[in-house]
Amino acid sequence: MDLSKLRKIFGERLATSEAIRRQHSHDESWHVPISLPDAVIFPENTKEVSIILKFANDNKIPVIPFGAGTSLEGQVHALNGGITINSLNMNKIKEVNLEDMDCKVQPGVTREDLNLFLRDTGLFFPVDPGANASIGGMCSTGASGTNTVKYGTIRQQVMGLEVVMPNGEIIKTGSRARKSSAGYDLTHLMLGSEGTLGYITEIDLKLHGRPEAISAGVCSFKNLNGAVNTVIEAIQIGLPLSRIELLDEVQIKAINKYKNTNHNEKPTLFIEIHGSPFGVKEQIQQFQEISKENDLIEFDWSDQQDEIDKLWSSRHNAYYAALNLCPGKKAFTTDVCVPISSLTECILETKRDIEASNIIAPIVGHVGDGNFHLILLLNPEDKEEVNEAKEINDRLVERALRMKGTSTGEHGIGIGKKNFLKTEKGNSVKIMSQIKRSIDPNNIMNPGKIF
Amino acid sequence: MDLSKLRKIFGERLATSEAIRRQHSHDESWHVPISLPDAVIFPENTKEVSIILKFANDNKIPVIPFGAGTSLEGQVHALNGGITINSLNMNKIKEVNLEDMDCKVQPGVTREDLNLFLRDTGLFFPVDPGANASIGGMCSTGASGTNTVKYGTIRQQVMGLEVVMPNGEIIKTGSRARKSSAGYDLTHLMLGSEGTLGYITEIDLKLHGRPEAISAGVCSFKNLNGAVNTVIEAIQIGLPLSRIELLDEVQIKAINKYKNTNHNEKPTLFIEIHGSPFGVKEQIQQFQEISKENDLIEFDWSDQQDEIDKLWSSRHNAYYAALNLCPGKKAFTTDVCVPISSLTECILETKRDIEASNIIAPIVGHVGDGNFHLILLLNPEDKEEVNEAKEINDRLVERALRMKGTSTGEHGIGIGKKNFLKTEKGNSVKIMSQIKRSIDPNNIMNPGKIF
Fold first, then answer.
1. Which of A3, A273, A421, B376 could form a disulfide with B332 if both were Cys (CB 3.0 to 4.6 A apart)?
2. Which CATH number characterizes residue B396's domain?
3. To the nearest whole angstrom, how far is the Cα of B16 from the nearest Cα of chain A?
């Protein structure tokens, strides 16, 4: 691959050392990389991205967008080599409009960068998938996370995008208006397209006012039913919960061990409520009443920010806590999402399936959305374990689809769930492929992902 | 056009009388129909729609989807004849899932039908564009309306669609899960595509819990600045207003005349707040405090449902009240949407423009979204008046785009705003056309709209 033309432009920002290529060959998933990119480029602006894509398109070279590398279904793997574009240097917050509560950022800005920048403005960016993902990456996978139940996923935050198309052309989708009915919604076509339709170079994001009061709590229940029914009832009466996370007893045990805490080792909800001081108090009380009718064991609340931070640090460390349960093993993570009325049944069937296997797999979930994750612990060298985990995952997805849910609530298809997509979406995958071909006829953008 | 094959299947549900064809030749806009459809068919289910589309595609006959006929940019006009498909008989509410707060409806169900059906469930469907539009039509134009500021537009309510594609194939987009990252977001590609990509035959909708308490009020201000600044400040401190409608003094005068009311003839907000009884009271108080700092004249609230209904009936009759200002004239309605920080400036410039003309044009707006409408009153036979109105509209859109807004917040492009779409979206219109061609190569679906 002759990259001399690009090397003249990018100099040392075009890397071909094996170490850097290897570092860009994988994400945080269990998927084993089968090859390395031929080069990694660190552009700084839209024009530079356009130059790379035009060159790649003219020479039919694969292009792989790379953000923070925190994807979970192999989205950044360089399956056929090619050029990986790392957004690390595209990390500028270009505008913050306080009156309109919005901002414009480059794709390499991470969610923590943005919230740090906003800390004195009274505004914040709510989407929180746990990892400190890049905002470009979050757009590409349609990310969500702990407080989707109140604020929505990244899809509800993006008002418009600047995208470099596969032939190097730059388009703008959306506007800074809060809504528009002007033509096809290319913004939402790009969101969740996992880098297969173009490279996102700028994002117009909605921001939200920091709540006056925040309170968070831990509620443990005698059984899973009680925890999930509490959430269903709370949502039905319209309690504006901001975060509702479910952790099963295996995950709580893992956290107790990892963080040296002493939570009841029972199905548990981590909750957060935002609002006015009085409103929050009123809502905690209502939530407690519902919990009591649903086999509550313990109800423990705090409005101290350090206590609240500790709680969410426990939640965000669920993955590492799980790994710590079986030192030496790796984590095969997967997620599905079902209508909330089927959530208890779906989780209980899944738990029985795990218990009948040789695999340890804690469950954590964004239960207000009907979305949950398995963290299947395994030795990737042990083929039998890998197969067993894959079969559990197969049955998990079948179960979610049978219950009218989806094969992935937030991790995306990547390379891991391509077959499931066909089962789930049937002939609408054909329409997706037609769109892909019409926009990227040379199939340079992240080939081998989704399809 | 030989429709005998379809006539055998649809019998009297295929109409070719001039009266019915004429009735289907136009919507509620000022656009004058240039031709009639050749036939109007009233299918009852998805399979029948599929038969019609396959036939039309094989014979390259235009197909025009028709709901309640309440569109405002000529979306249902049969520009080149063809077959109009009326969704009147596709009016079944197929599922209501109380626990999941969702439902499945056919496209001909209107928003009032649905809310009537839901009245004893504690749930409701929030999108309210004023007219009793069909839900299929609302999906097609990306409708919104008075309470978007709290609940979002129709785009945020739809979880999935069943769509008959131009070749008669039936696809499903989305699922009943609250979120998904499985493949391209075809749901949002279809929403707002104005019938140009397929015919929507089934819609999975989110529903919302009816609020415990509702209170509504009328607040008049010395000037427009005061009204808009009140809204900006209320949103910034996170007051969860459900409806925030702005009516200028011309519109208030029209309502006073039409409904025999005696509102202050000043820039006025109609507000509604949903929540717990205490929460609503707290919020009214906060809203009043902000209003007072912004040149409030009068602040009048009620929690009596009949008073509230009367208020919204005044708002929903804005169009007829405006017509009543100049008996014999017709209304040329248009809408734009801008970032809220530019709203005052945009409306004031627009008012100066109207005042310098011979046209009377009240302004009403969904001010929480930055969206407002002009109702330009004119005699469609008077070319000079029509031209003057068109020029006001041209300058309105230019102004909105200069302020980083959009040429239409909720009415869509139809036949009226095609040139504005090119100005607004630039080369992304090319991407839209590519998608259109890849999905509908014979251009049978609502040809001449959007592009």
1. B376
2. 3.40.462.10
3. 32
